[in-house]
Amino acid sequence: MTKAEPLLSLRGITVDLTGPHPARIIDGVDLTVQSGRATALIGESGSGKTVIGNAVIGLLPETMRTQGELLFEGRALLELPESQRRALRGRGIAMIFQDPLAALNPSQRIGRQVAEIPRRHGLRRAELRQTVRGLLERAGIPRPEERARAYPHQLSGGLRQRAMIAMALSGEPRLLVADEPTTALDVTVQKRILDLLAGLQRQFGLGMLFISHDLRVVSHVADDVVVLYAGRVAESGPAREVLTHPCHPYTRALALSVPSVHTASLIAQPIQGAAANPADRPSGCAFHPRCPLAQERCAVEVPPLRDTAPGRRAACHFAAEVANA
Amino acid sequence: MRFPGNTGKAVQRGTPRTATRVFKKWTVAVPGMIVAIYLLVALFGPVIAPYDPVATNLTDRLLCPGCETSSGSIAWLGTDATGRDMFGQIVAGTRTSVLIGSLTVSLCALVGLIIGLPAGYFGGLADLALSRVIDILIAFPSIVLAIVVAGLFPRGLGVVVVALSLSGWVSFARLSRSATMSTKEREWVAAARVMGVPARSVLVRHVLPFLAGPMVALIALEFGLIILGEAGLSFLGIGLPASTVSWGQSIASGKEYLATAWWISAFPGIALALLVIMVGLLGDQLNSRYQRGGSR
């Protein structure tokens, strides 16, 4: 993770909820995405994964204020005027949503929606149809001409997500933000969509920020992972190492909670207690109420994110003990 | 536009299956059919009953319904004080009412959309200003506003349409504003914004189509009220010029004969009431359909 210039780099990003109940829902998150690599953002529901994704693309509601350093290709996104940020959307950064049925306009044919960005380059009708066909094909949609004439509700979930991917590709982005792109899909379809994303990423050298709660999905696509807990980074590093040799008790608990088909029990070891609410974060280490290793110190002192090995960082007072356990 | 409006073209416009299902409900079928008959009469009026609004025939004055006229034909709904056939008058009046209703409702819907759509989408100061204007206009009785404007200018079709639109656009602006506000939170709008689609295209392509359902329902409701308003203005003598036929004028012209020739006021009154009630029922049905979330 120490290459020259990352495609996307977040340094000390905080997101504050303004209004009657102010809260810091994202507290100092660091994250990088390299071109041609996928960084996964893992966490339970409510840990702030989606908030970070939306902060990157600039979709947060006005009641949330983002601060910190958000660099895309070296440009500070948070300081760009809105018009320049808008110009980056779709063309620099594209996004894939969790539920393709909700994210596709039900009143318009697939082809028309995929053509939304190419149309603005002033293509002629026939060229546009060719472009749409090519995009749908690239997203692995069989019989693209026929599918372009279909409405979203006429397609299966997998095809809809492929259509979303075709839309996202239409602006030839450098960074793809994928917010739980397979969660709404059938398990058998999930792998194919993941393979498609991984293939596209390699083929076009896309950087991908992959947001998910599902460790199996993450282990399938991610090069690097960032584990988020209650709006803070718990651990980050290369995917394989982090998932197989976690340095943070939360990562370890997450890994153990994944049901495995190879063992007898379906749900191996669920994590005790409920996920911490970023708006009402426990003192000290946010994970301490659920942590098996917690000591008095954990309730008082916020553990800093420290290097534990080359390219790996963890925010735990006992990272060394966890790693050796 | 998946569901029948008040134009009687439902079957062609929607998918056949949906249209059949909607019309199977008698609460939709009966008002729909009656309104459709009115629209046909408005369209083909001159073919059904040729009528000259300024011709008078004093030998046939105040004939009762069913009486024989001097020319040997039968006046099924009687004649008025100048010997004009009431049936012909009602048929010609239908045309006027439907024309005024359609023109005004289109103008109102257009103005309401143009104002409400951006206000709901962008919010901010423009939205605040619009909301206050709407509050003021709602507090003001709409018929009074129409009377003032219609009374200030010479009688004519344009003046009537403008006078009735002056307060009619408000409910359309309010509806399109609130429907836009809820539609813009849908994920496909967010998706379009993420793709860098300009706001104008987002509005037209990703928000506007979802206003069609509630708009059609409101158009039906307002159509009835506007026809009633026009009849009111014409009754007061500040509506359409005397050379055009209007139910309001017919009702007014029978005022002095209520005791002796009730049919002059009664039949146009019934025609007016029936249309307004049926359009209202149809509008209610459409309205409840869309409020239940029928617009997907």
Q: How would the blueprint of this fold be written?
A:
The complex is a heterodimer of chains A (325) and B (296).
Chain A: E1 8-17, E2 23-33, E3 38-42, H1 49-57, E4 64-72, E5 75-76, H2 82-88, E6 93-96, H3 100-103, H4 110-114, H5 116-119, H6 125-138, H7 144-148, H8 157-169, E7 175-179, H9 187-204, E8 207-212, H10 215-221, E9 224-229, E10 232-238, H11 239-244, H12 249-257, H13 296-300, E11 306-309, E12 312-314, H14 319-324
Parallel strand pairs in A: 3-8, 3-9, 6-7, 7-8
Antiparallel strand pairs in A: 1-2, 1-4, 4-5, 9-10, 10-12, 11-12
Helix pairs in contact in A: 6-8, 8-9
Chain B: H1 10-13, H2 16-24, H3 26-48, E1 67-68, E2 74-75, H4 86-122, H5 124-139, H6 142-152, H7 157-183, H8 187-194, H9 199-207, H10 212-235, H11 247-253, H12 263-291
Antiparallel strand pairs in B: 1-2
Helix pairs in contact in B: 3-4, 3-12, 4-5, 4-7, 4-10, 4-12, 5-7, 6-7, 7-10, 8-9, 10-11, 10-12, 11-12
* Assembly annotation: heterodimer
Order of neighbouring strands in the sheet with most strands of chain B:
1-2
Helix content of chain B: 55-70%
What is the H/E order of chain B?
HHHEEHHHHHHHHH
Radius of gyration of chain B: 22 Å
Principal-axis shape of chain B: elongated
How many distinct beta strands of chain B? Answer: 2
- What's the helix count of chain A? 14
In what range is the share of β-strand residues of chain A? 15-25%
Overall, the morphology of chain A is globular
Task: Provide the CATH topology of chain B.
Answer: MetI-like fold
What radius of gyration of chain A results from the CA coordinates? 20 Å
CATH architectural name of chain B: Orthogonal Bundle
CATH class of chain B: Mainly Alpha
CATH domain topology of the largest domain in chain A: Rossmann fold
Structural class of chain B: mainly alpha
Which sheet architecture does the biggest sheet of chain A show? 8 strands, mixed
CATH class of the largest domain in chain A: Alpha Beta
- Total domain modules of chain A: 2
